[in-house]
TrEMBL record:
It comes from [Candida] arabinofermentans NRRL YB-2248. The active site is at 75 (nucleophile), 342 (proton donor). Gene3D superfamilies: Phosphoglycerate mutase-like. It comes from the Eukaryota. GO terms for cellular component: fungal-type cell wall. GO terms for molecular function: acid phosphatase activity. Disulfide bonds join 266-279, 413-421. It holds the Pfam family His_Phos_2. Keywords: Disulfide bond, Glycoprotein, Hydrolase. This is Uncharacterized protein. Belongs to the histidine acid phosphatase family. The keyword Disulfide bond applies.
């Protein structure tokens, strides 16, 4: 009998990944669909994007090199917010205080269960323990960037790190910077210039949190109707999961609200402990329902809100301007790092046209399994959007988009090196979408407040407090 692997060897040898994994079970199995982190609705630990298999490194045939990098990242893994924390504590206390005949089934762990938030002062802060530590995640991200783009940093020069003023964001930016300087405290103290942008309306357009400065945005939630039904309104999967748990672990009398709280409890406990018995107790079907609830909510209220393009336009305009100027006109600074919240990354992705792959609104009646828009793929904790400016041998400039370590070609422009988009074409497409509108006008920014983003250019003497 012919050994198929042997007969294919001459061909497999030209495929580095395949030739390194000749074990049949290794390269014929995919674990993405059963990876719980892909279904945590953006509340759980960082997970790489699925992508399209495009190599992160450019090949010799691309005839282009990276000469500028602009990154926009979400803070790292964190504890729940104060409001979510109340809900998690409620369900914890309900189950702990319930007297049952026997601790059995999926909820048998409740007998020895301990709440993972030891002090309320930790709420909303970065986690700093376990394999999913938010601070460690950002530190490692900084190290990776330094390793990958070391030739773009001029040793011994000040480098700014821009952060929205939320403490978890500031802590993430600082941890990233320490990683970038490879743990050298002296270099960090001397060369890292942390620039903190207040999350206040008075910042106008000179901000990393444009939603705070846009009055009309907060007046409209984005939903097509408050009479939405099915999966969004009642969450039938929640009732089904409650029934399953009540049958297998009788006595706790879980409601659909309890199930939702437990589904939320799981990813936040992962952020802190690195493991969670709550996660093990719940079904994958329930997590898929949670994921879709989160996707629907954030699609309408953030990602595809009528004002989202305006909110993201501030960041994209600044990004394109930096790339059009290039390091040669920016004191040789080729690296730009900014840190904010998940919603701000969604605004950015919208204005960048990455979300154009989602060609229709998400259904509020049933799960749309064919959707592109998945919060866990796009904005998990520690999410990062990296834009590379590529200089081709003919002098043309291109932009390549990397979302969570996966190259994402822009839907309407990807014929450049490494599936990048010509910088001039990207500017044209961006301006075409804006139709002459400006953030300051559409968001009714008061004349006394900044009308445009300037901190990338005036950071050396900027005053933002």
């Amino acid at each position: 009998m012919v050994n198929i692997l042997t007969s294919l060897a001459p061909y497999l040898s030209i495929l580095p990944f395949v030739s390194q994994h000749n074990n049949k079970e290794t390269w014929q199995q995919s674990h993405d669909q059963t990876n719980l982190l892909k279904h945590c609705g953006g509340m759980g630990p960082y997970v790489q994007g699925t992508g399209y298999g495009i190599p992160l490194s450019l090949t010799d045939t691309d005839a282009a090199k990276v000469d500028q990098v602009i990154a926009f990242a979400r803070h790292g893994e964190r504890y729940p917010t104060s409001s979510v924390g109340l809900d998690l504590k409620r369900v914890f206390e309900k189950l702990k205080n319930t007297k049952v005949d026997a601790y059995q089934g999926p909820l048998s762990f409740v007998r020895d269960w301990e709440y993972f938030v030891s002090d309320d002062s930790l709420l909303e802060m970065e986690t700093n323990s376990s394999r999913f530590s938010g601070l460690l995640d950002m530190y490692n991200f900084g190290q990776t960037v330094r390793s990958q783009y070391s030739d773009l940093y001029k040793n011994g020069t000040k480098l700014p790190f821009f952060a929205a003023s939320g403490q978890r964001v500031v802590d993430s930016a600082e941890s990233f910077a320490k990683g970038f300087f490879l743990g050298d405290e002296k270099e960090f103290e001397e060369y890292a210039a942390l620039q903190i942008l207040p999350e206040k309306r008075r910042q106008g357009a000179n901000t990393l949190t444009t939603g705070r400065s846009c009055a009309p945005y907060s007046k409209y939630d984005g939903f097509p109707s408050r009479k939405t039904s099915g999966i969004f309104k009642s969450g039938p999967f929640l009732k089904k999961e409650a029934q399953r748990l009540n049958e297998l672990s009788p006595g706790f009398d879980l409601t659909k609200e309890d199930v939702y709280a437990l589904l939320t409890y799981c990813p936040f406990e992962l952020n802190y402990r690195g493991y969670s018995e709550v996660c093990n107790a719940l079904s994958m079907e329930a997590f898929m329902g949670l994921e879709y609830l989160r996707d629907v909510e954030l699609w309408y209220t953030k990602a595809n809100h009528p004002y989202t393009l305006m909110l993201g336009s501030v960041y994209i305009n600044a990004t394109l301007s930096l790339m059009e100027q290039g390091p040669e006109n920016l004191d040789d600074q080729a690296l730009w790092f900014s840190f904010s919240h998940d919603t701000d990354l969604l605004y950015y992705l919208n204005a960048l046209t990455v979300l154009d792959y989602q060609t229709k609104d998400l259904s509020t009646k049933h799960i749309d399994f064919g959707r592109f828009f998945k919060v866990s793929e796009l904005i998990p904790m520690g999410a990062r959007i990296v834009l590379e400016r590529l200089s081709a041998s003919d002098g043309e400039k291109y932009v390549r988009v990397i979302v969570n370590d996966a190259v994402i070609p822009l839907a309407h422009c990807h014929d450049g090196p490494g599936f990048s988009c010509n910088l001039k074409q990207l500017r044209f497409l961006f301006e075409k979408r804006l139709k002459g509108k400006t953030y300051a006008e559409e968001c009714e920014v008061k004349a006394k407040h900044p009308q445009y983003l300037s901190f990338y250019w005036d950071w050396k003497d900027g005053r933002y407090e």
